[in-house]
Structures are given as C-alpha cells and as structure tokens.
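pasting for ref
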Amino acid sequence: MSKIKIFIAFICILVFTISACDTFSPTEEILPPTVIAEPTIPPQKSSIPLREADVPRVDVEIAKAAVDTGAAIIVDVRSKRAYDESHIPGAINILLGEFETNINGIALDKDQWIITYCT
C-alpha cells in the first residue's frame, strides 16, 4: 500500500473512533428547578394525624429549599437530650408531647410551613 492510502485509512479510523466515543459518552442531564409546594392533607376531624402512616412525608431536598427560602421552619420533636446531642442546623426543639397536647399553645408562626422530624 502506498503511504497516502495508509494515511487516509488512519484518518478514517481516527474519525470513526472519535465519533464513536462522542456517541457513547454521557451527557449532562439538566434537571428542572425545585418547586416548593406544601403538601395537601385531606381534611381530618383533628389537625393531628392519628396514625404514623397518616403523617405526610417531605423529601429532604424540598425541605431544605423551603427552609433556605424562609417558607418553612424545622422542628425537632425529640427529647432535649437528643436535640442537644445532634440536630439539623437551624431547627428548634419542641417536644412531640407539646404538639399532641397543646398545639394551640405552641408559639410558632402558623403561616409558615412547619416541618417536624424525630430521627
């Protein structure tokens, strides 16, 4: 083979290899912005869910975005000792019993989304 044919073959293989690599390389996925939406809760006789299964759940990313924008506050409902050992930065500590027995006596802004956690 002549040097020109070898060179052309080499260029063709190189172009094919580069295009094959581009085809199989991962592309960056563009995610839509996080939308903060308060969960809708079906009306109940009591404002407190009676069963654990009835308590609405919130994704961590949504909760963080809501707190960062001021749309929500985080309340740690564990014991004072557990709260003192470790808690989410910015969370306040109000015992679960207070929510169960004195919901109207708790001094929280009821216009804000109140997200509680216990673990």
